[in-house]
Amino acid sequence: MIAMTEHHLPDYLGAKGGHLTLDGHDLVDLAQEHGSPLFVFSERRLAANASSFLKAARQGHKRARVFFASKACSNLHVLKVIRAQGLGIEVNSGGELWKALAVGFVPNEIVFNGVAKMVPELEQAIGHGIQAINVDSAFELSRIAEVATRLGKIATVALRVVPGIGGGATAGIQTGSERSKFGMGQEELQAALAIARNFPKALDVAGMHLHIGSQVLDMPDFLESVSFTARQAREIAASLGKPLKHLNLGGGYPIDYAHRRKGANNNDGFDLSAFAADHPAANMVGAVAAAAARELGNEAEIFFEPGRSMVADAALLLTRIESQRKRGTMPWLYLDAGYNLLMDSAAVRWYYHMVNAGRMDAPAETPFRVVGPLCDSADCFFDVEGEYLWQALEARLSGLAGVTPEILGEIRTQTVRLPETRRLPAATAPGDLIALLDTGAYSLEEMFQYCGRQRAKAVMIMQDDSVVTLRERDRPEDLLDPAERALLI
Fold it and tell me: How far is it, in rounded angstroms, from Cα 104 to Cα 76?
């Protein structure tokens, strides 16, 4: 029986004999077999996510297509599962394009995003004749025209436009305004349209593209992006003298990272709403697609580019407690996984819910400070920078006229991004296995070898209940570049 005191678990997770299970597999046993740290993916969950997105999009708009944002996870095993569900793929580099082609995506199933595409990458994309290159700037469009002219080909492009819509849980993942590095504002768009008109034999402006951010919780933001697209697409078509063939509404659909009842695994006054969604992402896609059908019609195809929401909850990270101590009365736990495996835990102070995989029958009521193994004070699962900043702000603000406790609480929520402690069973100790949920997105792609730490192994539980290896754990020699290995000869 699962102790539900501090968390609720999605239905593909469970507990048996006090151990956490994924698709019925005992995760404590799996870590014993494969070692720790260990990423564990579920093919069932991944396939279900992909098919539900596509189904919802097509129910809302009969000409909808879904392109998985492969930057979230471009492991070939993962891409193979997604392709089998009938999705296309969105790539952000020549390397991701190479992977997409290697796993079997055909050119008309591929769109290419990115803010600084290199000439060799453009040659690759134009040479293969992919579905669309999403053009991020007027300069890039002129570069594409030059490459296409030299190759004697026509490049199919979509113009990425800034909609001026704020979305995303943190500033670092908001992409819908000119304060971000993405897309063209109105003045630059006009310059791009002039370039397109000047190179009709090299450029086919087939579409328009936008993206408002990641982990966007509010449906009105998505619906506003549809209305913006309707207005902007008409203006682009009028300028070019032809209708657009597709309208790309981007991604940004959220998942529930919190997995807890209100107030659980949390400090008083700390708000985790930015990491949770009131509506399943596929339902949101369906609603946006239906709005697109109403406002944009069915003449053009509608594209979506989900990434995080498709793959994040298809995996978890198992990490072993290696040490413990007390500072005053507060117990601290030291894991064998840190931001070397989950870079977003430090880069944007992203929240990953924790459970003790071997004590699922015990209530998670005891607060712990939880940190990683790296020789770096930032390697922790709380917001060390925010806590220090808050102490300084509180000292200055307390006692000022008009600064109420409510105002202080709001400022603290905006300053301290993560709970100071995590609630786990009181008996949690070295040797126990901690599961960090929803780690399928931006983890395998961002792992690195700081402090000589080896990148983790990853496995996938298949729908036939076999377990396959997605990537092996680094060996000591994998810490060396070939130029370094030459020194060992």
Answer: 10
Answering whether pTM is above 0.90, one says yes
Position 232 pLDDT exceeds 80? yes
- Cα→Cα distances 304→49, 68, 164, Å: 14, 8, 19
Residue 265 has pLDDT above 60, yes or no: no
Burial zone of 144 (CB within 10 Å; 0-12 exposed, 13-18 middle, 19+ buried) = buried
pLDDT at 182 over 90: no
CA 160 from centre of chain? 20
Q: Which two tokens stand for residue 403?
A: 């600064």
The strand pair at 155-160 and 203-209 is best described as parallel
56: tokens are: 């919802």
Q: Within 10 Å of residue 29's Cβ, how many Cβ atoms?
A: 11
- 3-class secondary structure, 45: helix
**417: which 2 tokens?**
């991004």
The answer to whether the beta carbons of residues 265 and 364 sit under 8 Å apart is: yes
Burial classification of residue 16, based on how many CB atoms lie within 10 Å of its CB (0-12 exposed, 13-18 middle, 19 or more buried): middle
> What amino acid occupies position 376?
D
Question: Phi/psi of residue 190, each to 5°?
Answer: -65, -35
Phi and psi torsions of 334, nearest 5°? -115, 115
Q: Cβ contacts of residue 133 below 8 Å, gap of 6+?
A: 111, 112, 117, 122, 125, 126, 144, 155, 156, 157, 158
User: Residue 428: what residue type?
Assistant: T
Query: Distance between CA atoms of 96 and 206, rounded to whole angstroms?
Result: 22
